[in-house]
């Protein structure tokens, strides 16, 4: 009997355990259903359902608030924007004076700040503050992508400097493998950080991070590439966008009547057209001034002997004064048959046109982004202007155009860069190149076969 009772008691315990497991499974399934419903709502929600992001605070200095307290809100904003614009332009000229290296640091600083502003919006919109490791991973991916792009720049423009340092030779030789290994580490960390309750949200933010990297890091790398072609390729496009932004605002403020686009209700056709003509004239005159100075037109190169960036060269044909015939229609208006100008001024017309006609669409895109997530500005870094990204939304689009323009219409073979690459080769490889080049020149009749070397 005792054995039978024990078996019956064991059977009853097993039944109770099965019932508890079923209840736990049902409870877990209910939680999963609730979670799936919440995520489905996140996927299907309309723009009006996007949670409100806290509005940025007013960061205007108290001294400006007191000085402008008697003005209307419209004129107060006008004066704040104007004063801060003059301060930023003055600081920009100071950095130009300090040289190319400081400009590169400025571009890097702007890139990091823009990345921070966009990523922060993602955190707020998707309430992802508590996602495991995600803040660290976002900045880790930024470091990886910057390591890759800036390493490519070092390998391309600082070959002579690298050649003298063995530890750098290893890093440059295996640069792409190291970059890929770093990215894979972050990728694996992301996979390991996945939590059952946050799968979809984590992938939202993973995509958000990569799109932000594409917008900020890739474009800032192109800005630096343009800078190495000559400071004029950096200054004219950036200044054209700034000029268009300022003049379009002024024309729109005083003469604006006709709305331009629904995404930006304050933009007007009067501001758009006035900004276009002002930017073209500015670009033409500014290019004339810069083209006269070697400091602005020479490619930026690194001198390994002095450990400094140098801008010394013989000006290319783009920056040598030439005489052009004035079209017959303009001869009657101007009274000139010929005009002296730099060829680069013709290119500045293309750059200024893009900055004033297509560049603003970068701003419209940013306006649509901000409207989608119910925010006025990306941040409150600059009083009257918003965040850094609010000021540079058009610059990134401009940087891509300039890079494509240079590679398509300007850049040719660079003997200096080719020579640097040849100097990195092993002696036997250099000798092989020399023999091949000599044979080619003999066949072309440039060298005599009897020439010894």
UniProtKB/TrEMBL annotation:
<comment type="pathway">
    <text>Phospholipid metabolism; CDP-diacylglycerol biosynthesis; CDP-diacylglycerol from sn-glycerol 3-phosphate: step 3/3.</text>
</comment>
<keyword id="KW-0594">Phospholipid biosynthesis</keyword>
<dbReference type="GO" id="GO:0004605">
    <property type="term" value="F:phosphatidate cytidylyltransferase activity"/>
</dbReference>
<keyword id="KW-1208">Phospholipid metabolism</keyword>
<feature type="transmembrane region" description="Helical">
    <location>
        <begin position="78"/>
        <end position="98"/>
    </location>
</feature>
<comment type="similarity">
    <text>Belongs to the CDS family.</text>
</comment>
<feature type="transmembrane region" description="Helical">
    <location>
        <begin position="204"/>
        <end position="224"/>
    </location>
</feature>
<feature type="transmembrane region" description="Helical">
    <location>
        <begin position="230"/>
        <end position="256"/>
    </location>
</feature>
<feature type="transmembrane region" description="Helical">
    <location>
        <begin position="268"/>
        <end position="291"/>
    </location>
</feature>
<feature type="region of interest" description="Disordered">
    <location>
        <begin position="1"/>
        <end position="35"/>
    </location>
</feature>
<protein>
    <recommendedName>
        <fullName>Phosphatidate cytidylyltransferase</fullName>
        <ecNumber>2.7.7.41</ecNumber>
    </recommendedName>
</protein>
<feature type="transmembrane region" description="Helical">
    <location>
        <begin position="133"/>
        <end position="150"/>
    </location>
</feature>
<dbReference type="GO" id="GO:0005789">
    <property type="term" value="C:endoplasmic reticulum membrane"/>
</dbReference>
<dbReference type="InterPro" id="IPR016720">
    <property type="entry name" value="PC_Trfase_euk"/>
</dbReference>
<keyword id="KW-1133">Transmembrane helix</keyword>
<keyword id="KW-0808">Transferase</keyword>
<dbReference type="GO" id="GO:0016024">
    <property type="term" value="P:CDP-diacylglycerol biosynthetic process"/>
</dbReference>
<comment type="pathway">
    <text>Lipid metabolism.</text>
</comment>
<keyword id="KW-0812">Transmembrane</keyword>
<feature type="transmembrane region" description="Helical">
    <location>
        <begin position="170"/>
        <end position="192"/>
    </location>
</feature>
<dbReference type="Pfam" id="PF01148">
    <property type="entry name" value="CTP_transf_1"/>
</dbReference>
<keyword id="KW-0444">Lipid biosynthesis</keyword>
<keyword id="KW-0472">Membrane</keyword>
<feature type="transmembrane region" description="Helical">
    <location>
        <begin position="344"/>
        <end position="366"/>
    </location>
</feature>
<keyword id="KW-0548">Nucleotidyltransferase</keyword>
<dbReference type="InterPro" id="IPR000374">
    <property type="entry name" value="PC_trans"/>
</dbReference>
<keyword id="KW-0443">Lipid metabolism</keyword>
<feature type="compositionally biased region" description="Acidic residues">
    <location>
        <begin position="12"/>
        <end position="25"/>
    </location>
</feature>
